[in-house]
Amino acid sequence: MRRLLGWALCLMLLAPGLTRAEQALLGLPPVPVPENNPQTPEKIALGDKLFHDQRFSSTGEVSCATCHDVQKAFTDSPLKVSEGIEKLTGTRNAPTVINSAYYTTLFWDGRSPDLEDQSIHPFVNPVEMGLANHEPILAIVRNDPEYVAAFQQVFGKSGEQITLTEVIQAIAAFERTIVAGDTPFDRWYFAGDGRGMSTAAKRGFEVFIGQGRCVSCHVIEQTQALFTDNRFHNIGVGINNIQQEVPELAGAFLKAKAEGIDVDVAVLTDSKTSELGRFAITDQFDDMGAFKTSTLRNIALTAPYMHDGSLATLRDVVVHYNNGGFSKEGEQVNAFLSGGIRPLNLSEQQIDDLVAFMETLTSPQFVQTASAERN
Ligand code: HEC
Ligand code: HEC
């Protein structure tokens, strides 16, 4: 119920008669929508229902929303790595679905090309929703009267005509409405209204674009800010600790891949394989330990951080960068570290200011749902 209430709050912030994808929010470009999957209100509502349906898991207890919960800014914060069926744990931290419509690839290693393809995988991942194949989903949507009516209305299809394609299209259409801009930062930077920005946050912005060099990957443009370059970088998280094993791990992985293992399953069930990052997709050593630059929008609500959830707070993140790509005393940076990561020589105050800046990237609807949950 709370989830629905929270969601209704978000919907109330929309101008009547517009679906979110059509409405550009302050700080964000219009949402890209593929030609073969246009947005309609009915399709979005169907996708919302599918996203929350726990029957699409082997135990009947896990839905997409289990790990992407609106009350937690569409993550499972404060979990380090996600828990699926029977509390089985994966290897990676659940990224937010908010603004994922803007990414040019999905997942931390970019192994999926679009939102439609992305949602195929969790259903059948053994540590997520655990289905053996997609047939149980089709059995439900072809027979449950509410779904039968909805698929007929949205796609003009029934019975065997309904396939996984329609299911994933509806989910993706729903996800393309989970967009959020209009933060205190957006109002200040793009609309000249600085009321939500403290002096510390403004100083933090200067560090972000200056000495901290954050903006070189977490991009801010003249009229919009996605806070990502949609590229992959090794910033020294995770792989620093296993670098001696990399040649052996890489060799074993390439062999297994040639033999046809499922990469989605491999990276989410083996923590060392997970650390290969983008390499596991491209087989290029340049991509070793590299992960997708995350958006920083709503970052204050989604701790812990990084692909493995290894950094607990935003301050820990900034200290990691300030050190030049390591977190713990005595840790050696790995040989594949991005050239963009080097010691920053930030003062304690600059570190605090950067954190204050990142705290201004929270969209109003998620502040409201987070505080509604606390009450
Ligand atoms: C058990 C928890 C869990 C469930 C259930 C789950 N996810 Fe996720 N989701 C994750 C994790 C963890 C990742 C990151 C995995 C990776 O990058 O390898 C992720 C990644 C994503 C991404 C990519 C975001 C980005 O920044 O690239 C999207 C979109 C997403 N999930 C949507 C869904 C949808 C839709 C469903 C239901 C069909 C779903 N998830 C089910 C945990 C979960
Ligand atoms: C060379 C590119 C690059 C630079 C420079 C950079 N980042 Fe990142 N950032 C990334 C990548 C890539 C990730 C994801 C890495 C991972 O999970 O292993 C990330 C992750 C993060 C995260 C965690 C996101 C999440 O959802 O868990 C935060 C916060 C962050 N960066 C803040 C900053 C700040 C602040 C600076 C400047 C001090 C900065 N970044 C500089 C590329 C960069």
From TrEMBL:
It is found in: Periplasm. Gene3D superfamilies: Cytochrome c-like domain (1.10.760.10). Residues 1-21 form the signal peptide. PROSITE patterns: CYTC (PS51007). GO terms for cellular component: periplasmic space. Binds 2 heme groups. Binds 2 heme groups per subunit. Its cofactor is heme. Heme c 1 binds at residues 64, 67-68. Residues 42-158, 199-362 form the Cytochrome c domain. Keywords: Electron transport, Heme, Iron, Metal-binding, Oxidoreductase, Periplasm, Signal, Transport. Heme c 2 binds at residues 214, 217-218. Pathway: One-carbon metabolism; methylamine degradation. GO terms for molecular function: cytochrome-c peroxidase activity; electron transfer activity; heme binding; metal ion binding. It holds the Pfam family CCP_MauG. PANTHER family: BLL6722 PROTEIN (PTHR30600:SF10), CYTOCHROME C PEROXIDASE-RELATED (PTHR30600). Involved in methylamine metabolism. Essential for the maturation of the beta subunit of MADH, presumably via a step in the biosynthesis of tryptophan tryptophylquinone (TTQ), the cofactor of MADH. This is Methylamine utilization protein MauG. It comes from Trichloromonas acetexigens.
